[in-house]
Design a protein that fits this description.
40% of the residues lie in helices and 17% in strands. The protein contains 10 helices and 10 strands. The chain has helices at residues 30-39, 53-59, 81-94, 108-118, 131-148, 160-171, 174-178, 223-230, 233-255, 273-287; strands spanning 4-5, 19-24, 43-45, 70-73, 99-105, 151-154, 181-188, 199-202, 260-267, 291-296. The strands form 2 sheets. The chain has a 6-stranded parallel sheet with strand order 1-6-5-2-4-3, sandwiched between helices. Strand 3 (43-45), helix 2 and strand 4 (70-73) form a beta-alpha-beta unit. Helix 1 crosses helix 6 (160-171) and helix 8 crosses helix 10 (273-287). The longest helix has 23 residues, at 233-255.
């Protein structure tokens, strides 16, 4: 394995190997790494003995050209486990399965501080051993694994979101990095505020078509209602600022590793204003290149009779 330092700048993101083995120091972020790979579409297994890698590959139906990808966390503190991992990865290489080993590391001082914060006992502490003794023992046991890993990621001074970003830069495809899946839906506050939305915008301050008898039984999907709502000066000013806000914050969410975003657009009944505005919000985001699904939660309850 030709080791690369994960903090170095990459010319372009990798398309991602078929199998990624995550290992490293306890407390250095192995669980965070696994969650990141889950977001990238990898099927993840925690704490898998290296001897079971071939069985996992077989059970998962992973083969050359397969779209499925796996990420496993392997604890290599037992001295016999690293040679075992090397043998198993060699067998997978012969099968044409691409693999990479990611080693998560941190300084002894930072690991000690993290254990103090969580008040957990280090897994290698025995008898009267201190946490620092356990950390040092683990580092000695993992020294060869660190030297042979494909990537070493030092999390000593990085926030969890920074760790996620570095992993994404290493293993995500360009589309994975740039694509945010967004759900936009309209709703009516009188039918209940949403509990699953990341962003909720209340548009009840805009003129209401409900008070126009000709529009009352129509919905925001009808041209007449849409033109009424979108043609208001207040709406035009709102949309200019609303689009600017979304254009600013969504790239920030992506940078932080968020891949799914739900936006709720609410009016009183979820029939007129919210429907029209959720529709154009979805269109704006689609034109910006995002994968968007637009729905209307309470349209079935509309007063159309």
């Amino acid at each position: 394995m030709a080791q690369q330092d994960a903090v170095e700048e990459l010319d372009s993101p990798s398309l991602g190997p078929d199998l990624i083995v995550i290992t490293g120091m306890s407390g250095a972020g192995r669980t965070e790494a696994m969650h990141t790979f889950e977001d990238l579409g990898y099927f993840c297994i925690d704490n898998l003995p290296p001897s079971l890698l071939l069985n996992l590959v077989s059970l998962a139906g992973l083969n050359v050209g397969s779209s499925r990808k796996l990420a496993v966390v392997c604890d290599l503190r037992a001295q016999e486990f690293f040679p075992e991992l090397t043998r198993e990865l060699g067998k997978l290489d012969e099968m044409g399965i691409t693999t990479k080993v990611l080693f998560l590391d941190s300084t002894d001082e930072q690991l000690l501080n993290r254990y103090k914060a969580t008040r957990r006992r280090h897994p290698l502490c025995e008898g009267d051993m201190s946490v620092l003794d356990g950390i040092r023992k683990e580092r000695d046991l993992l020294d060869e694994a660190r030297k042979q890993a494909d990537y070493v990621l030092d999390t000593s001074v990085t926030r969890p979101q920074d760790t996620r970003a570095k992993i994404r830069a290493l293993f995500a495809s360009e589309n994975d990095i740039d694509e945010m899946r967004i759900s936009v839906y309209s709703f009516g506050f009188k039918h209940g505020a949403p509990i699953d939305a990341d962003i909720v915008i209340d548009v009840r301050f805009l003129p209401n078509p409900y008070y126009d008898k000709e529009l009352r039984t129509k919905t925001g999907l009808d041209r007449e209602v849409s033109e009424f709502v979108l043609g208001q000066p207040e709406t035009k000013r709102f949309l200019e600022r609303w689009y600017a806000l979304l254009d600013e914050i969504i790239p920030g969410y992506i940078k932080e590793g968020k891949q799914y975003l739900t936006i709720g657009v609410g009016c009183t009944g979820g029939q007129h204003r919210s429907v029209a505005l959720a529709t154009v919000t979805g269109q704006h985001l689609s034109q910006a290149g995002y994968h968007v699904n637009t729905t209307h939660r309470d349209l079935a309850l509309a007063e159309v009779n």
